[in-house]
Amino acid sequence: MRSPLEQMTDRLRELQAEIEAAIEDRRAAFRYRMERGRVIFDAEVRARHRAAREGLLSFLSRTRLLVVLTAPFIYVLILPFAALDLFVTLYQAVCFPVYGIPKVRRRDYIVIDRQHLAYLNGLQKLNCIYCGYCNGLIGFVREVSGRTEAYWCPIKHASRVSDPHSRYPVFVDYGNEDAFQARVEEQRAALTKAD
């Protein structure tokens, strides 16, 4: 019999599927479709988007100076993000096959597509590419680290964890040594068969 926590986790997955269905309904409302990974808008919508684009000079003229001055602090982070991407990708490529853990597909997390919106100016498109990469990378790294934690130390923390990864709810309770010893191999086997 499934525990209440496992039942709630199942319900959460069902709610996520409902959210995806609602997003699909919104796609229809905004008159676009996906074809082979590309977004296709109706011609009328594309024309409306181009007409709504704000020029770069107008956009910058209404941006506060302090906001502009923070840009180097934002963009310099691309260096540690790219290094993190490289090292986590190498870690996964080397270690996951040894552990039997299925690899995380980067393209499922790093989605860069907002630059195709005709109502964005060049700077807004650049910002969208940057945010899509960085936030997607964090999701990718979280999944890689979540799978690693599920393999090596599937034990809940004593303290509350804010927004734990998806594998965390089935971890063994903190302090339950019997369950850990009995279930660690079972959890590893489940992980290696998942995804």
Characterization of this structure:
By secondary structure, this protein is mainly alpha-helical. It has a domain of 130 residues. It has eight helices and two strands. Strands 1-2 form a two-stranded antiparallel ribbon. Strand 1 and strand 2 form a beta hairpin. The longest helix is centred in the C-terminal third of the chain and has 31 residues. It is globular and about 65 Å long. 7% of the residues are buried.
Keywords:
195 residues; mainly alpha; two-stranded antiparallel ribbon; 8 helices; 2 strands; 63% helix; globular
Question: Secondary-structure blueprint of this entry?
Answer:
Blueprint (H helix, E strand, L loop, with lengths): L3 H26 L2 E4 L2 E4 L1 H10 L3 H6 L3 H5 L1 H5 L2 H22 L22 H31 L24 H17 L2
Antiparallel strand pairs: 1-2
Helix pairs in contact: 6-7, 7-8
